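Running co-folding for PMV.
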Amino acid sequence: MTMHSAVARAHANIALAKYWGKADVALNLPAVPSISLTLAPLITETSVVFDERLSADTLSLDGAPATAGELRRAVELLDRVRALSRFQGFARVESSNNFPTAAGLASSASGFCALAGAAWVAAGQAYNETVISALARQSSASAARSVYGGFVELPVADPTQGDVAALAARPLYGPDYWDLRIVVAVTAEGRKSVGSTAGMGLTERTSPYYEAWVAASPGLADQVRSGLAARNLEEVGTAMEQSTLAMHACAMAADPGLIYFQPATLAAMEAVRGLRRDGVAAYFTADAGPHVKALCTAADAPQVQAQLEATNGVLRTMVALPGAGLVVQPGGK
Ligand code: PMV
């Protein structure tokens, strides 16, 4: 019996310049450029085994069978891998996170990145970061960025170029470029109420601020990029806060309005600005959920973490640091 298998490991990432909104829903093309930081030690490990005995794809997540919705999104990615590689056969997929799904960081980015990498190599294809990033992007745009370590950009794609590189993320600087920290403040248990795809769709259709968000985003991404080039934390941080608040303001103005913040979200944001008033260079961001992530230097991370721990409504904190890109090994675990 022939087994085609591979194991992949990918880190989560956090957007410094946010993606919110799609230029093309079918191709899952972002309407705005985004820039992220890949985060250690938050890892998804995924194994893919194409097994002749299977009559359908199977997926387990952290040891339990996946829901129908989770399985469908994995099968869609496997279908794209099969179409592109011309490899036929069903796969057994086992995926686990070394961080709880409720850690306050999305597992979709690391999850779809690891799945794309493992499936591509298990299908007998040569490891190719560009192809894997473009494949992951179609499942979750943020997943395209986790292929690379450190600081990563996902530009607005031009599908008419017919070049796979136009659909992939690209690395800006490796994880050793700048020793920053992300302090995560978890402010609520459980899953978010409205997922990013549904939330973006509602925002695009109904928010009167959507066009303004799309118009403002490239400038904010430019500011993050130039701040990174100069290792200027103030420039990166102020653009990141602006990108976060503009994204949330745009989503809040949807009909019905999307409010991802909880009282503790605002308290944690205020705590970060309070640190700044005291001379500590810390800046906040928040994705489509209530948790707050603070960007700061490695030296300031203990103080930022202590301040967020002491903030009303913050349940727990953890510190993440720049992480490496995707790693894929052919064969089983
Ligand atoms: O790629 P998705 O569907 O997980 O959406 C990500 C959206 C944000 O996390 C809010 C922003 C971003 O760029 O990661």
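Result summary
The radius of gyration is 19 Å.
The pocket of PMV is lined by residues 15, 18-20, 34, 106, 108, 140-142, 196-197, 287-288 (CB under 6 Å).
Job closed.
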